Amino acid sequence: MGLESLAEQAEILLRSRLCNPNFIFSIFSSSPDSNYSKLKYMISSSVTEACNNSVLLLGPRGCGKVAVLELVLEDLLKEYPDMISVIKLNGFLHSDHNCALKEISRQLCLEHQLLFSKMATFDDNAQFMVSMLRECGLAHKTILFILDEFDLFAQGKQLLLYSLLDAMQSVTSQAVVIGISCRLDADQLLEKRVRSRFSHRKLLFLPPSREGLQRLLEHILLLPTNSSFPHEYVAAFNDKLLKIFTDVKFKETVDNLSYCDSTVNHLLRFLFSAVSHMDLKSGLLSLENFKGALSTIQRQPKLEALKDCSVLELYILVCMKRLEAKEQELRNFNSIMKEYKSIHDTFPTSDYYARNVCLRAFEHLLQRELISFEDNRGHGQSTEFRPVKLLISWPELYQGLKSYHSCPLILHKIMDREG
Amino acid sequence: MGKEQSPQVNRRTTRSSSSTTPNSKATGEGSKIISNTKSLTVNDLVLSDESINLEELINSFPHRRMQILELIKLLGPLNSPMIPLFVYGGASTGKTSTVLEIFKHLNRPFIYSSCVTCYNPRILFESILNQLLLHRKNESNGYSSAKRCEKPSDFVNLLRDALSTLIDSLKGDLGKSNSKKSASQVNGKMIYLIFDNLEHVREWDKSSNMLPFLFNLYDILKMPEVGVIFISKTSLDTYHSDTGYVEPFPVYFPDYTEGDLRQIFLKNQSNPKLYSSFLDAVLGPFCRITRRVDDVTNAISPLYKKYCELLDDTGVIPNKDMKSELYRHINPYISQSLKETFHVPSQPTLEASASKDKTKRKGITKLGVSESFDKMDFHMSTCAKYLLISAFLASRNPATLDASLFDSTGGAGNQKRKRKSSGKSMEQKESKEQELLMKGPGTFPLERLLAIFQCITSVAEYSPDDEDPQIDGQGADGWDSGLMSDVLLQLSSLCSSNFITKGGSCPLEGAIRYRSAVSEDMALKVARSLKFPLSKYLYRT
After folding, report:
1. Which residues of chain A neighbour B342 with C-beta distances below 8 Å?
2. Interface test mutation site (partner A, options B68, B79, B83, max chain A beta carbons within 10 A)
3. CA A307 – CA A312 distance, rounded (Å)
4. Is the full-model pTM beyond 0.90?
5. Which 8-state DSSP code applies to residue B142?
6. What is the pLDDT, as a whole number, of residue B49?
7. B64 vs chain A: nearest CA distance in angstroms?
8. What was the ipTM of the complex prediction?
9. pLDDT (tens digit, 9 = 90+) per residue, A105-139?
């Protein structure tokens, strides 16, 4: 096999690893103190002892809550093949009570090879769910309800939560409710009657520590030795990678990355970019890949938008800044035009444009989201009269003007004077 | 599972359609049309039959080499999974066309939907499902979609089914026809979903979770054979969400610089040297206003015609003297055109220039712009015109002045004795008036509008012209009552055509307040057509 096709295959392997959360978080399942083992113990004990239970998995987005849960479920389904059935709901899709019951019935039917009718009414579905719970309880089969985006279920009247948790209170049913949320106060959102039926178990998922990060990097990026790749290639690849990991600059890059966002998802996106830019001729990852990936993932959108602005749009932004500095209350297009005129009366230049041209530039700025209207309700008035506010700060504007490659001197003078 | 029928669209039969008898000619045509639309296959998910290679692709998009290579690297080799991408940049920077051309080059199947044409969730879902299920809306199925889908939960289930069937058929195709590979064969077994104009989704139902749902779609589906690409005009930080969402990977398309624009315009020109000297003169001033390709193109294309006027032969290569002469010729037109930038010529100007009828217009015809007429260019009834003027006055003047301006003589005698005010108070008054002007038109209740209207029309002289032919039989009183009876109707039609906007009601008084939305020029035009002395009634110090 040629080196390029080997490299391509390696790239495909790494990319599929990066897009597969189950693989990523399987490394965290080994230690006995991890969330994985706690969760596994809890669910398996409620399955074997035939009791009801509920738990919340909380943590910022991208820390592996769903992935760890999937790993636990995989193992449990292997261990207790016929004793578990899983129902998955998502807050984005099923926060409405009707939708949720319909989906629960559909999944129950799918699992038990029953016919599901789309015409079933809400009452039918509710009765069906209750009777299925009872039947499964009698057959010693546990139903696991997984509620993703749990905080969205807790909006409104919380009917679904109440009916689920209430159904669990009866002796015959055997169910476990697992809620997953990125809001750390998700249990505070519950109503009193729902909360009283909820066992206050919470598992907290946190971003990995430095050592964990190092282990994670090795777990993801090192090619497996017992795979179909030729041995020399794998050895060369892994050696180069291990050398990079010990490099100071690489450590700085990874630290820089985790200063703003230390979740695993962020790291995965960084690695994805680095792996996609792998040099196919040499077939090895290099430090430049990682450094390049850092700059593509850390963007400064407002400065980019400022660089895209034309000179007239910069004038408008500086006029708005001056109005803010003067503490004028009325800041709309007309007052900006007045300020623009006064600048040109003091420093006459060729950059004085007609009002309709300035209005168009103003609308371009609105599109770029460098300025926006102050309130959303004033749709009755035309664009010239509605008050606007700046969406960039003073230092950003200053920095943008400094790096703008043909910025007129007047603007620099004004900015310096404003301090 | 019950069999699902495609939703029946109830179509109203119009009189014409029910009256035409299907004769043999029509049915012949109809059957020909039906037989022309063959059913869609997977090959239709790929753009066109010819493929282009990488060099052609990069050359067709000057100055986008970096972005094209970045996107191709992120899309990766065939059949490798991908995290969601987010392509963003200003308007007309080539995001959509670049992405589509890249897919044409790679020959991979994709589903494209724009959030401008699919303006609510239901249409978006149905459009995607139609494309996935290879369903075409035509006469035989009554122009209905393949599946009816309103809620995200149904959408995800149907999407999963449709994607898995499509991917299975792709895998089957790959296995079968490995021996012969035609150019139109799709590559790979991954399907890419492209969502264009994503910034419009922010204005859809604000309380819905549409945006986080779309961003999390890849995670919810959990299918590695699907790739998701978002295209947006604004960057990711302008998408706010309470609890956040999974962030896609950003790819930025910067605006073109002046040098880039010059290269873009020089492409495919018949006489590059002449055009380049033209651009030397013209591009600089316009780029100070805007660097958007479409705006600059609209502005400079009429100027080029003007530039080449002096030359007999447009194939000539200009030397230095010719260049300076041409520059002097074009200079006044540039400064004029700068005031009118972004104006696309309207139809009357094109017709006039085609017929070369210059006698109607006086003065220099502005390039590509229709002259602003002193007259109104559309028709309004007299009552509506008076209402419009009353609304303008009510918005413009503060309410306290009404008594003095509109007395029983119709305001004609408002030349009261003016107290001589000191210079400082005059200045203060002027600045206050300026502020009032800048703040915009004020609101007024219905009663005030009708009072002003009544006052104005009672003294107006009615000149019977061709406007209201049916009233000429009645006298002045009859005209008055005829005018008053449909005032409220006229008011509601003015509101619906946005000459007057209806505001919210004041919580204390509970009445609806209106606001005039016309500019002073427009009001002057209307007043002039009625021979109404508008300036006498305007609030001025």
Report:
1. 357, 360
2. B83
3. 13
4. no
5. T
6. 61
7. 15
8. 0.93
9. 999 998 888 888 878 888 888 888 888 888 888 88
